[in-house]
Amino acid sequence: MSIPLSEALKFWAKLGLISFGGPAGQIAVLHQELVEKRRWISERRFFHALNYCMILPGPEAQQLVTYIGWLMHRSMGGVLAGSLFILPSFFSFIGLAWIYITFGQIPWIAAIFFGIKPAITAIVLHAGMRIGKRTLYNPILKSIALGSFLAIFLLNLPFPVIVLIAACVGVWGNQYHPEHFSPPSNSSGSHPDAPGEAFFDDHPPRPEHTQFSQKKMVTQGVLLLSCWLIPLGSLIAIFGWETLYPELAWFFTKAAFLTFGGAYAVLPYVYQGAVDHFHWLSTIQMMDGLALGETTPGPLIMIVTFVGFLAGYTQHLIANNHPFWFGVLGATIATWFTFLPSFLFILVGGPLIESSHGKPALAAPLTAISAAVVGVIVNLGLFFAYHVFVPRGFSGQISWSAIFICLMASLALFKYHKGVISVLLASGMAGLLWHLASGLAPI
Q1: Cα separation of 286 and 334, whole Å?
Q2: Distance in angstroms (rounded) separating the CA atoms of residues 123 and 119
Q3: Among 5, 190, 244, 245, which lies 20 to 30 A Cα-Cα from 381?
């Protein structure tokens, strides 16, 4: 018996529509739905896959969705799952980018954004707590999480450096204190309150398609490489090398391969290139795009769709009757070349990672990385809180309305266990009502 592909596709499509809250919130939703509720995958297998995605360049939540889709329904399942996760955000960003560039700033939309941002702060902190409860099961791992938080909060260490240090600690720990880097002995790493075993648990034999094959790895690698070379070559042949669209393709290819640590690590690189070097958009436009990314479903890195749309739209705005379609072309190129490497990493590297499942020498570094990620998530929540509660810095006014909305969102999440989507909707409505009551657009 297996999970029907049609049932899985319905879930992936739904997930793409409700996956708000950034990577931490999305991973929390995935864990709640797939590990606790549907029991499609065991907790240990879930975090094994998550740890692998955390050390890859690119959006970890989308890679995790692709990995689980591949695990359940082979390569086609992985491609469909990963695509459905980003398509709603892709189309939403194109529509919002067109509204943004056509109609400018709309006060009531800004008010909704104002209400959603404090909720995102609460969602990220809630996700850190939920993941921490599952992964920090001994004092050593709690110390790694604390050290990770201090390293990024006080020393501003880059995320890849923190991951590397955590992996080294895991290697050392497996050699001298392996008992601290092994999952709890109860069952197979599944949530103790979850009924029954997961469909993809730790005990059954691995499916045939998860077995490593050098021939299959080479075949898939060549296929995915052609998905990069053919579009890039076509853009160069049609437009010429030193033109906008090949530049977009090459720039976002580099962004996909050279930036580790998820969306918040790639943003400085995208900002430097898109704003300072190529001048595809302004600083204000980049900040507004980030706000849209925080309040639309899908990975935050979908801001690349916004950047690509504005680049194509503005270049053809003068002396062209259809700048919208050039914007769509720019958005498509930016999105394609950003996410293609993620599919490569999962479809080619998945069998290697599955072969490491249950092997302490390989699992211990990933366990340590998982603990370090908890500290990074907490730091991200505090980073959001600072920018939401004191938007002009400590020298400016405190936004008591944002603090109030964050507290209400936290109460809904922590005490009443409300869903992410309902909290976001209520917070957006609160921001709008606050704006209408005060008669001023919140800033």
Answers
A1: 15
A2: 6
A3: 190
